[in-house]
UniProtKB/TrEMBL annotation:
Residues 300-358 form the AFP-like domain. This is N-acetylneuraminate synthase family protein. InterPro entries: AFP_Neu5c_C_sf, Aldolase_TIM, PseI-like, PseI/NeuA/B-like_N, SAF, SAF_AFP_Neu5Ac, SAF_PseI/NeuA/NeuB.
Length: 358
């Protein structure tokens, strides 16, 4: 199976050794208003996002009115919606005629523009516009769309919420058969924003993915409150993180309540940057910022009395005390020092070097 451990999104290198790439999913949080969509792109950039992402669907191309009607429009987070599922999708869809304005706004602001396309027309329309495509979890089995995105040659970010390993294997195969640039994202698609959801996030799937596809770029699409899940995901190797983004969690639209806002988004980015710095490279060493503390915290063998040249050291002549200047014998070697002759006069409290001993 042929896939890359490094790919680029608009010149930005995505790999395990590079900083996490943050996608602010504006989704439907523009509330059907182009000015709000533009404002959210600006706010996402200010909050530290690398990418402002939208979703392009048309109600008629994504949901069956009859299908949801038959289920009473009452499942999961949709139960809170005041209108039917079709009406909500229609009201909150991202207008395709906004595209040039959104793309230009993102360019001016200096943030990548991306979308999750929910129909073939949208994939074709955006194939020369976006630097990468996102497959939303719900479309993991939409073969035609997944293959079409992969065939554009753009990196494909595959969300895997509400899927089992068999679904994931099939989708990964479809993508890598056409395109080696894939990011495999763990996701839990419960959008209720409940803290109960933490126990379903299952971050340990990331190492499972890594074991099955060594070196594949991993990501995490998160819908839980706070930053714990994201910090855990980055620790476990995710290098693309997506979270919903809004300016105001109290607005009425379907995606506001569980989104991060500019303040919480900034906190997340800052926390991940700190975590990345803290994770390091795994090589155990005395770090360059510890060179002084290694002196002040470690002990050296020091003389408990004035000693004259020719005397033989016994255990009572030595005590282990801080600091330990470079070259001093440490208490690790106390047994090698006891019984040795001292070659020159030394004062109480002085340290010993090997050249002091006969
Ligand atoms: C729904 C989407 O993604 P996810 O499955 O990651 O929540 C999306 O990108 O439109």
């Amino acid at each position: 199976m042929n896939y890359n451990s490094v790919f680029f999104i608009n010149g930005r290198k995505i790999s395990f050794s590079d900083p996490t790439y943050f996608i602010a999913d504006i989704a439907a949080n523009h509330d059907g208003d182009l000015e709000r969509a533009k404002m959210l792109i600006h706010l996402a950039k200010e909050a530290g996002a690398d990418c402002a992402k939208f979703q392009h669907f048309k109600a008629s191309g994504i949901v069956s009115a009859e299908g949801f009607e038959a289920m009473g429009n009452q499942l999961s987070h949709q139960a809170k919606w005041k209108k039917s599922v079709t009406e909500v999708y229609d009201q909150y869809h991202t207008r395709r005629e906004w595209t040039s304005v959104l793309v230009e706004t993102a360019r001016e602001v200096g943030i990548d523009f991306m979308t999750t396309p929910y129909d073939i027309e949208a994939i074709d329309m955006f194939s020369t516009i976006v630097p990468a495509f996102k497959v939303g979890s719900g479309d993991i089995t939409f073969r035609e769309a997944v293959v079409r995105m992969a065939e554009t040659g753009k990196p494909v970010l595959l969300a895997t919420g509400a899927s089992d390993m068999e679904d994931v294997i099939a989708a990964v195969e479809m993508i890598v058969n056409a395109n080696p640039n894939i990011c495999l994202m763990q996701c839990n698609t419960n959008y209720t924003g409940s803290v109960e959801n933490f126990k379903y996030v299952n971050l340990q799937v990331l190492p499972t993915f890594a074991e099955r596809w060594p070196g594949m770029i991993l990501g995490f699409s998160d819908h839980t409150p706070g930053h714990s899940a994201v910090l855990g995901a980055v620790t476990l190797g995710a290098r693309v993180v997506e979270k919903h983004f809004t300016d105001d969690n109290d607005r009425e639209g379907p995606d506001h309540s569980f989104a991060l806002n500019p303040k919480t988004w900034r906190d997340m980015v800052d926390s991940v940057r700190e975590l990345e710095a803290a994770l390091g490279d795994g090589i155990k060493r005395i770090e360059s910022n510890e060179l002084e503390t290694v002196v002040i915290q470690r002990r050296a063998l020091r003389l408990t009395r004035d000693i004259q040249a020719g005397e033989v050291l016994c255990s009572n002549d030595l005590e282990a005390l801080r600091p330990c200047p470079e070259g001093a014998i440490t208490p690790m070697d106390d047994l090698k020092v006891i019984g040795r002759k001292i070659l020159q006069d030394k004062k109480k409290g002085m340290v010993l070097a090997w050249t002091d001993l006969g």
